[in-house]
Amino acid sequence: MTATVAAPAPGLTDEEWIAALRANSDPALEALHELLLRAARFEVERRGGRLRREALDDLAMQSADDALVAVLAKLDDFRGDSRFTTWAYKFALLEAAVRLRRLAWQNREVPLEAEDWERFASAGSSPQAGAELNELMAALRAAIAERLTPHQRHVLVSVTIAEVPIDVLAERLDTTRGALYKTLHDARQKLRRHLGEQGFDLEQWT
Amino acid sequence: MSDDLIGGLLGPRGPELTCEECFDELDRFVELELAGRDADGEIPGMRAHLAGCPACSEEHDSLLALAERD
């Protein structure tokens, strides 16, 4: 039966893609893998930087392999709100992006004691910034030091000051990107609320 | 400290999606953008999340660029 299902090709409708994949046809699976590999290579070309070509090719292939599994597992979730190809691409882009960020940080330590925070917290006022901005910076430093939990401070400083990618930090802390973003969000809300209560106008930082 | 850093520390002002919700809606959001429709109005909280989450923002930019080619 499955041999009669044509391989999806450019111009195929979303319904034909879904039917072919549900029928588990080899040509359809190969076409999907090719599509995902194209997306993964696209991400690798955009963000791979100076990584070795061989490593990038491997990374793109692994990303396409894992994205294929993810797409097939989520096939029933496809609602047709976008083209099937756009929906499928995002799985490959996610896989490749996460791998690239982890690879870029594989030999770098996340500053657990937040050296960046020490540098940030002890920085003096800047003559160029103006009195109002210096006042806000001082209040922000104090609020981060006094109002946040150690975990909130660590996540906020790592992601925003040290620029550690959130999925790299999640891997090191043995948690998920979603859980860490929730921590980051709560920390930011706490800072905004506290500074707002102190009379700072934060409208310009949206 | 730059304005960008203050913005990063304070995060988006309004309500925002979670990373999971962002991923779920990303393909629809991108196609609304490509069609010139009101993506921000149709998916409230997405733009704020993209402003606050560098990882999701990277993935959005890549999907937008890739889908634009099709």
What does the model show?
- The complex is a heterodimer of chains A (206) and B (70).
- With 206 residues, chain A is mainly alpha-helical.
- Chain A contains 9 helices and no strands.
- Chain A folds into 2 domains: 2-104, RNA polymerase sigma factor, region 2, helix turn helix motif (Rna Polymerase Sigma Factor, Chain: A, Orthogonal Bundle); 115-197, Orthogonal Bundle (Arc Repressor Mutant, subunit A), CATH 1.10.10.10.
- In chain A, 67% of the residues lie in helices and 0% in strands.
- The longest helix of chain A has 22 residues, at 26-47.
- Chain B is mainly alpha-helical and 70 residues long.
- Chain B has one domain (3-69).
- Chain B contains 5 helices and no strands.
- The mean pLDDT of chain B is 94.
- The chains are: A mainly alpha (206), B mainly alpha (70).
Helix content of chain A: 55-70%
How many angstroms does the end-to-end distance of chain B come to?
A: 41 Å
User: So, the CATH homologous superfamily of the largest domain in chain A?
Assistant: RNA polymerase sigma factor, region 2, helix turn helix motif
SS-based class of chain A: mainly alpha
Class by SSE composition of chain B: mainly alpha
Low-confidence stretches of chain B: none
How many structurally independent domains of chain A?
2
Taking the sheet with the most strands of chain B, its summary is: none
Q: What is the CATH architecture descriptor of the largest domain in chain A?
A: Orthogonal Bundle
Shape of chain A: elongated
Classify the helix fraction of chain B into a percent range: over 70%
Oligomer: heterodimer
Largest interface: A-B, 48 and 36 residues
